[in-house]
Amino acid sequence: MAAAPSSLGAQFHEELTCSICLELFTRPKVLPCQHTFCQDCLQDHAGRGGAFQCPNCRQEGRLPPQGVAGLPDNHLVTSLCERLQNQATLSVETREQPQSGNRCCFHLSEVLRLYCNRCNVPVCNECLDEMHNDHNTITLKKAARERKAPVQELINEGRDILEVYCGLLKSLREKEKTLDEEKEDTDNSIIQACNHHLFQAEEKYLKDKEAVQEERDSFLADVDELSAACDRAEQELQHGTFVRQFPTVVSGEEKMYPQDVTMDGKGNLWMVGYTKASEFAVQYNKQGRVLRKFDVQKTGWYRGVAVDTRRNHILITKTTGDTGNQRGKIQVFRPDGTLVRTVGQQQGMEYPRYITVDGEGNILVSDFKSHCVFVYNKEGQFLFQFEGLLDYPKGICTDRAGNVIVADTRNSRVEMFDKTARFLKHITTDMKRPQAVAMATHGQLVVTDTKTDVIQIIQSCMIYNSQC
């Protein structure tokens, strides 16, 4: 059934209404996003120029140099608005027009009363006598009844087509709304994803920066340690009693830069160090003659070394990976360089710095990066780890009772724990940067301080609060 004219007019009126002022469009202008608004409404919304957002879809655009007036006109909308206004005016005029008889245009004093079927025109009495004599005529009312049905059928068909068009316009309007909503959702998703990636990048940057700063502090400490060693050697040459020295040669004239040293059960020295091309473990006798050596994988990180005198095994720390992503472990070798086992891969060790073996064969390792000590039994099985508020621990050794002594470098103190990791005491807190610790033959504790270039020997009675 065809819609009533007023209903169709109302639907078209909705399509031709500005979403800002809610009135029929006046001088409609089209934005780049294809939404249409009144020129005056856009002028109030956009201001004088520059970037602005569409009131409907929020898409950003820029005005042409002429401002809002320079935007394209929507001629189709203009035409439809004019037609709708004209129909409204015509309807009013038709209602206000007085109902009176129709006058003949040829005989102004005569009223049209008949319809000539032969000529298909309305006629008056005068026309009938002059031009339509003997023509078949009927009354106007009857002629109107006969022709009303086909005309009304055409009108209804036109109304039906208009109703279909109105449905299509409504469907298009809903589809446009859906597209705007999908675009807004997509924009929000992109913004959220972008913010998430920015947050992750910032978090990674801060984490990596912290790792670099920690590694820089470590290297600065090593530089300071090396510098202090050089200064200490100069002072010993001037003031100390020189006993013996020998160059750490590995072959021919090639010298090795030593990183750590320990003594085996026969009084020979085991050293770990590096040349420009390789890294080694070398055994020297007391006169500095090379007894044996074997290569270790070049990593570029400092190593520690210890000897298990019961089994004559050489234990060497190994650190791999990049700055901020180090991974550490302990390698156990025979004196000929044969790898016996690897210890500590499963506990998350990062930068094992110093190592020692206690009287029971247990392995103790100070992890410079993880700020803790790892403890393994003689078979390399993990026992426990402890921190004790350690901050960059380095040197580590044990006394005859199995107590653990650690150089707590960053805290500027030397600490003692029992064999179960229970804290016992601060042995000394008046050092600047304790580096390495070792127990001497008669129970004294020897501590190196790389900040003050001093070797401090602490008597046994001072350690255990006994009578000196």
From TrEMBL:
Residues 18-58 form the RING-type domain. Residues 169-236 form a coiled coil. Its EC number is 2.3.2.27. NHL repeats lie at residues 337-379, 380-420. It holds the Pfam family NHL. The keyword Zinc-finger applies. InterPro entries: 6-blade_b-propeller_TolB-like, NHL_repeat, TRIM-NHL_E3_ligases, Znf-RING_euk, Znf_B-box, Znf_RING, Znf_RING/FYVE/PHD, Znf_RING_CS. It catalyses: S-ubiquitinyl-[E2 ubiquitin-conjugating enzyme]-L-cysteine + [acceptor protein]-L-lysine = [E2 ubiquitin-conjugating enzyme]-L-cysteine + N(6)-ubiquitinyl-[acceptor protein]-L-lysine. Transmembrane segments: none annotated. One of its GO terms (molecular function) is ubiquitin protein ligase activity. Keywords: Coiled coil, Metal-binding, Phosphoprotein, Repeat, Zinc, Zinc-finger. Residues 99-140 form the B box-type domain. Belongs to the TRIM/RBCC family. PANTHER family: E3 UBIQUITIN-PROTEIN LIGASE NHLRC1-RELATED (PTHR24104), SMP-30_GLUCONOLACTONASE_LRE-LIKE REGION DOMAIN-CONTAINING PROTEIN (PTHR24104:SF50). This is RING-type E3 ubiquitin transferase. It comes from Branchiostoma floridae.
